[in-house]
Specification:
The complex is a heterodimer. By secondary structure, chain A is mostly helical. Helix content of chain A is about 70%, strand content about 5%. Chain A is flat, with a radius of gyration of 24 Å. Chain B has helices spanning about 15-35, 40-50, 75-80, 95-115, 115-125, 160-185, 190-195, 210-230, 235-255, 260-285, and strands at about 65, 130, 140-145, 150, 200, 210. Chain B is globular and about 50 Å long. The relative contact order of chain B is 0.12. Classes of the chains: A mainly alpha, B alpha/beta. The interface between A and B is large, with 37 and 53 residues.
C-alpha cells in the first residue's frame, strides 16, 4: 500500500468527522430557521363522505403513478 | 425484509428507533461542543432550544407529565405547542379528570410498548415533557422549536387506544424534526413551503396544506396504518390508504421542495406504503 494512502480506519474516521461537521451545520441552520417554530396541531376531524368517495376512486390511479415514479427514480 | 409482514416494526427511515438514536447522538455531540457538561440527549435538546435551558434537569427514563404548565415555567412552550397567544379559559383539567386521564394514559402507554417495544423506548429517551391542556377540537400537537415536548388535549373519556395512537402520532413528528435537524429534509423555509404552489393534500386532515405539513402527514399516516394493522384493525388501516396515496402522489410531483435526503426518504416511504396497500388488499380478499 502506498505510504500516503489512508487506512480503512482513517477513512472511517474522516467520514465520521465529515458527518459530524455536516450535522453541526444542519443543526445550527435548523435552530435558526425554526426559532419561531412551525406548529403541527392534530385537529379532531369529521371526514366528509364526498371527499372519501373521490379519494377512493383516485387511489388506484395514484398507485400506478407512484409505481412509475419509483421506476423512474430507480433507473 | 422491510415491509413484508404486517406484524413487523416501523421499518421506515427516519421513523425507526435506530434513526432516532443516531440523530440523538449527533445532536448531543453538537451540543457538547458548546457545553461539555451536558450529559444526555434530552438535556442537549432542551439546551439548544432557547429559552428551555432554564428548565434544568429532566427525567432520563420517561417524560415528565405537566398538568400546570404556567406554574412550572412552561406556559410559553405550551402556548407554542397549542399555536395560540393565550391559553383557552378552560385549559386546566380538574383533579378528578387528571386521575381518570392518567389511568387511561397508562394503559395507552402499555399498548404502545407492547406493539413497538424498541420504538417506545426511543419515545421515552426523546420525549422530555408531556404537557396537558384542554383545547376544544384538538387532540394533540408538536412544534418544531420545542422538540421533545408533546402537548396532549384528551377528551376525558378518551380510550387507551387513542392515547397510544396520539402518542405515536406525535412521536413520529418528533422523529421527522430530529432528522430535519441533523440531515435537512426540506429545500425551503416553512413559510415558503406554505405558499400555494407548494401545498399538497394532507394524508391526515385531507385538505391542502404546506409541503412540510403534508410530508409529515404521510409519514404519520403510514405509521398509524402499520400500528392498526398490527393490532388487527385492518379496517382502520384501509381507511387511511386512499388519502395517503394521493398525498404521496402530490409530494412526489413536487419533490423539488425536498433535498436529496428528503427525496430518498420519500421514495422509501412510497415503497413501504405500496407494499402495505398491496398486503391489506390481499388480506381483504382472503376474508
Amino acid at each position: 500500500m502506498p505510504e500516503n494512502q489512508p487506512t480503512e480506519q482513517q477513512a472511517e474516521a474522516d467520514a465520521a468527522a465529515f458527518a459530524a461537521e455536516l450535522a453541526a451545520i444542519n443543526i445550527k441552520k435548523y435552530l435558526e430557521l425554526h426559532e419561531a417554530g412551525a406548529v403541527w396541531v392534530r385537529k379532531v376531524m369529521e371526514f366528509d363522505s364526498e371527499t372519501r368517495k373521490v379519494a377512493d376512486s383516485a387511489a388506484e390511479l395514484a398507485v400506478a403513478r407512484l409505481q412509475k415514479y419509483l421506476q423512474q427514480r430507480n433507473r | 425484509v422491510a415491509g413484508t409482514n404486517l406484524a413487523d416494526g416501523i421499518y421506515c427511515a427516519p421513523l425507526r428507533a435506530i434513526d432516532v438514536r443516531a440523530n440523538g447522538r449527533a445532536i448531543l455531540n453538537f451540543a457538547r461542543s458548546i457545553n461539555p457538561s451536558l450529559r444526555t440527549f434530552k438535556e442537549a435538546l432542551l439546551y439548544l432550544q432557547t429559552p428551555n435551558a432554564l428548565f434544568g434537569a429532566v427525567e432520563v427514563a420517561e417524560p415528565v407529565m405537566v398538568w400546570d404548565a404556567p406554574l412550572v415555567g412552561l406556559e410559553e412552550p405550551l402556548r407554542d405547542l397549542i399555536g395560540q397567544a393565550t391559553l383557552p379559559t378552560d385549559w386546566e383539567y380538574t383533579d378528578g379528570e387528571r386521575a381518570h386521564i392518567l389511568r387511561q394514559l397508562s394503559e395507552g402507554l402499555s399498548l404502545y410498548r407492547s406493539v413497538y417495544p424498541d420504538h417506545f423506548q426511543a419515545f421515552n429517551e426523546t420525549t422530555t415533557h408531556l404537557l396537558f391542556a384542554r383545547r376544544a377540537g384538538s387532540g394533540s400537537g408538536s412544534v418544531s422549536n420545542r422538540v421533545g415536548m408533546i402537548w396532549l388535549a384528551p377528551l376525558v373519556d378518551c380510550p387507551p387506544i387513542e392515547y397510544a395512537e396520539n402518542l405515536l402520532h406525535e412521536f413520529l413528528h418528533q422523529c421527522l424534526f430530529l432528522d430535519e435537524m441533523v440531515h435537512t429534509i426540506f429545500a425551503g423555509t416553512s413559510a415558503r413551503l406554505a405558499q400555494n404552489d407548494a401545498k399538497c393534500l394532507s394524508a391526515i386532515r385531507r385538505e391542502r396544506r404546506g409541503y412540510d405539513k403534508s410530508y409529515h402527514s404521510a409519514f404519520v399516516s403510514f405509521g398509524l396504518a402499520k400500528f392498526y394493522s398490527v393490532l388487527g384493525h385492518a379496517d382502520k388501516a384501509v381507511e387511511l390508504m386512499p388519502p395517503l396515496l394521493l398525498c404521496l402522489d402530490d409530494l412526489a410531483t413536487k419533490e423539488h421542495f425536498l433535498t436529496g435526503h428528503g427525496r430518498e426518504l420519500l421514495q422509501g416511504l412510497i415503497r413501504e406504503v405500496l407494499g402495505l396497500y398491496d398486503r391489506l388488499g390481499r388480506c381483504a380478499q382472503q376474508k
